[in-house]
Every structure is written in structure tokens, then in C-alpha cells.
Amino acid sequence: MSQTTGNSLASNHLDWVDGTRCIAALAVVLLHAAASAVTDKSLIGSSGWWAANLFDAATRWCVPVFVMLSGALLLSPAHPGEAWTQFYRRRFGRVLLPLVFWSLFYLAYDLYWVYEREAEPDWWFMLRQTLIGMPYFHLWFLFMLPGLYLVTPLLRQMLAVLCRKQLAMLCAGLLALAMANKVFALWRGDGPPFAGILFVPFIGYFLAGYLLASGPRDSRWPWPTLIAGIVLTALGCGWLAGLGELNAGTYFYDYFSITTVPAGLAAFALCLRLPNLRLFGWIAPVSFGIYLIHPLWLDLLWQNDLRPTTLHPALAIPLLTAFAFVVSGLAAWLIRTVPGLRRVV
Questions:
Q1: Any residues with CB less than 8 A from the CB of 288 and at least 6 apart, and which?
Q2: 283, 22 in Cβ contact below 8 A?
Q3: For the chain, what are the domain ranges?
Q4: 309: phi then psi, degrees, rounded to nearest 5
Q5: N- or C-end of the chain: fewer Cβ atoms within 10 A?
């Protein structure tokens, strides 16, 4: 490892890891609980819509933080001499089984509701959604991870010869390209890409996680950057929504928007300073399961007319989030107790 790459993670305490997993998982649930109110065009301009918009804007850092956490852990020099085959066998084994299991689970769940409504399933649509990594809307993350794992050994070798300045320039360049690609895609209007290349834009975040976690902790920039990113995301979406361009306004929610990228970096920098709390230690082992399971509970609530608009969204969204988070955590814990199913969560 080049001596110019900064402090290694091996010399840093990793008490923040469990807390980061827990907070990011909670943010994902909150984001999804708020989403349906944000996309309800009949609410635009109301206090309820602005509450949902603010909740959504305040949590858009969650997926970038998950990716940066993976980069911080997998790219650290704590894996000396690990063979590529060993790394691939362990990592792909952890993600491919959940990917297959939950893809089939949610496809079956969708089919149940199709038949319940006495409709005919659209098999081509289901195949297309799977090919773009979305057999259910949140599962794209599982389709993205194998790509990052695929390039991890190569990135480790690259990090051995790069100084921190070079790494920072590379991260900035990759994130800038991803941001430019998002603007271009918004203008061009093409559909989503094949699932196999979902990981490419996230390489910048992946490297940024290692860069931030292995460097000095700077307390001056994260909070102002995060707050500014959240406020500008909410205002940007609200401004365009008020002009009747809600679809364009959701650009600000994208993980590579001009407001979300700095907010994501700042949120991860703040997570690096989280304390080691016993509560985090309880929740962290089921945080992956919470991510996988929570859309099921939210959808069941929706099916029973318990939505963000059932009460004022400022109250309903936190209540729905708390319910889905706790019940999903309990479900994940129960699944982990079943022989043969522990590895799917």
C-alpha cells in the first residue's frame, strides 16, 4: 500500500459501521414511505405535499451511503493477499442467493395481486423489469452490487499505487461523469439500462467511501453540505412541481443529481463519527433484511388504505416508517432463525 494513501482503515475504529447500516436502512424506509405522497399530483402545493417532499429530500443520501460503506470496507487494506477467487466466492455467495430468492418472491407477490384482480399477467413486462434489475422497485440494488464486487480486486490493485490526491481526482471525475450522464439521460428520455451495467455510475461512490473512511475526519463541511443538499433538493423539486413539471422535478431526487451527490458524501462523512451504541448492534444484523422486506409491509398497508395521505403526511409518514421498519426487522430476525433461510437476509 502506498504510504501516500492516507490513514488505513485498519488503524481506525469501525464502531460507526453498525450505526451507518441502521441509519441508512431507516432512511430507505422513510424515503419509500414518503414517495407515494410526493408523486400524488393532486397534493402538489399543499402542506402535506411539502412535508412528503422534505422527507424524501432528506433521505436521498441513503443508497449512496450504503455504497460508500461497502467501498470503505471492501477496499480497505485489511484484506492483504486475498485471492480473487476467494473474494468472488464469498461475496457473490452472499448476494446472489438473496437476489434470486427475493426476485422470485416479489414476482410471485405481484402475480398474486394480478390474479386476485382477475387480470392477465403481462409476462413480457415482468421479464423486462427483471432484465433492468427491477422485478420489484427496490431490488435494483441487489442487481447493482455484483458489478461492484466484480471490479473490487482490480480497484484494490489500483489503490496500491494511487496517492490520495489522485484518488480524489478520480472520484470527482467519476461522479461528475455520472452526474452528466443523468442530465443527458433526462434530456434524451431513454429507458433504464440493462441490469448488468447498473453498477458503473456507482464506482465513484464506492471509491469515495474508501477515500473518506481512510482519511482525516473533518467536522467543518459535512453538516452545512448535507443541510444545503437537502434544502436545495426539496426546493428544486418543489419549484418544478409547481410549474407542472413534477417528473422533471424528481431529477433532484436522483442519486446523481447536483444536490444529492454532495449530500451523500456529507452524510457518509457524518456517519463516520457515529458512536458504538448497543441499539445499533441489535439492529445492524437485520438491516439488510429490513431493506429487502419493508416494501412488502408498505404495500400491504397501502392495500388496506393506510397511506401517507390517510392522515396529514407530516404525521402519517413517520408512523408508517416506524411500523414498516420495526415489523421488517422482526420478520428478518425470524427468517434468520429458519435453517436454510438465514442467508437470504
A1: 21, 25, 98, 332, 345
A2: yes
A3: 3-344
A4: -100, 0
A5: N
C-alpha 57/C-alpha 50 separation (Å) is 10
Question: Using a CB cutoff of 8 Å and minimum separation of 24, what contacts does 94-101 make?
Answer: 94/343, 95/142, 95/145, 95/146, 95/149, 96/146, 97/343, 97/344, 98/142, 98/288, 98/292, 98/343, 98/344, 98/345, 99/139, 99/142, 99/143, 99/146, 101/344
The string of pLDDT tens digits covering residues 103-145 is: 999 999 999 999 888 788 899 999 999 999 999 999 999 999 9
Q: In sequence order, which ranges of 189-251 are alpha helices (DSSP H)? A: 203-213, 222-242, 246-249
Query: What does the pLDDT look like over 232-262, one tens digit per residue?
Result: 999 999 999 999 999 899 999 999 999 999 9
Output the pTM of the full model.
0.91
